[in-house]
Amino acid sequence: MKKIVLITGATSGIGLACAKKFAENGDRLILTGRNEERLSEIRKELTAKGTEVITLVFDVRDREKAKKNLNELPQEWKVIDVLVNNAGLALGLEPEYEGCLDEWETMIDTNIKGLLTMTRLIVPGMVERNRGHIINVGSVAGDAAYAGGNVYCATKAAVKALSDGLRIDVANTAIRVTNLKPGLVETNFSNIRFHGDYERAASLYKGIKPLTGDDIADVAVYAANAPEHVQIAEVLILATHQASGSVIVRK
């Protein structure tokens, strides 16, 4: 049966990879992001291949705009089966005592509060229907801090705690909650972290074959299509030569 899958931050990286993988699975997609032009391009690409797609332009930090966009969905699209809370970012790699307060606020508002906004707006409908799946994109950074990671690591630790807490809250229903925890993934993530310094971003992947967005999307689609009695609660996904958030063997 086709599912309706809503993916936040769907214009690049893991979010875009998830959009393409769920499309290949035959699902219907609601894609959100801040870049209207990019969303339009993705919609055209996927609809040309036969996927039904709706795009919503908003920043998950904007609670009212998120609510307005979801309320204005056609009635048949409001029955969301899978919520992929993917929107998130890291900014900077400075010591905590030298960090930028504005960057901290952006990370907290996006990675934590944005995830909570989408959860609060969508999960009540799942509870009412007694079915649904929330897939939160966390990080290996949520397991243990690494040098310069401080606030970003804290936001991903929050994603783990929020995923665990939600799973407890819906344990009396048929709703499933998955926390995906990627390690080193080569996407636009590092370019954003280093404010467009592509050389510095590229250096993170030297000497190791990193994961791709497709690798993470494969796990998301697998979790969403596991038998109904199976809940893939948490998955740590690392490159072969990465042992933890801070241990990477480069060759």
Briefly, what is this?
The protein has 251 residues and is of the alpha/beta class. Helices cover 42% and strands 14% of the residues.
Give the number of helices.
Answer: 8
Instruction: Name the poorly predicted regions.
Output: none
For the largest sheet, list the strands in their spatial order. Answer: 3-2-1-4-5-6-7
Q: Largest beta sheet, briefly?
A: 7 strands, parallel
Overall mean pLDDT: 95
The count of DSSP E runs of length 2 or more, i.e. the number of strands, is 7
User: How would you describe the shape?
Assistant: globular
Determine the fraction of residues in helical runs and give it as a percent range. 40-55%
Percent strand equals 5-15%
- Helix-strand string: EHEHEHEHEHEHHHE
Structural class: alpha/beta
- In whole angstroms, the N-to-C terminal distance is 45 Å
Radius of gyration: 17 Å
Can you characterise this structure?
The protein has 251 residues and is an alpha/beta fold. 42% of the residues lie in helices and 14% in strands. It is built from eight helices and seven strands, in the order βαβαβαβαβαβαααβ. A seven-stranded parallel sheet has the order 3-2-1-4-5-6-7, sandwiched between helices. α1 crosses α8 (213-224), α3 packs parallel to α4 and α4 (101-129) packs parallel to α5 (150-169). The longest helix is centred in the middle third of the chain and has 29 residues, at 101-129.
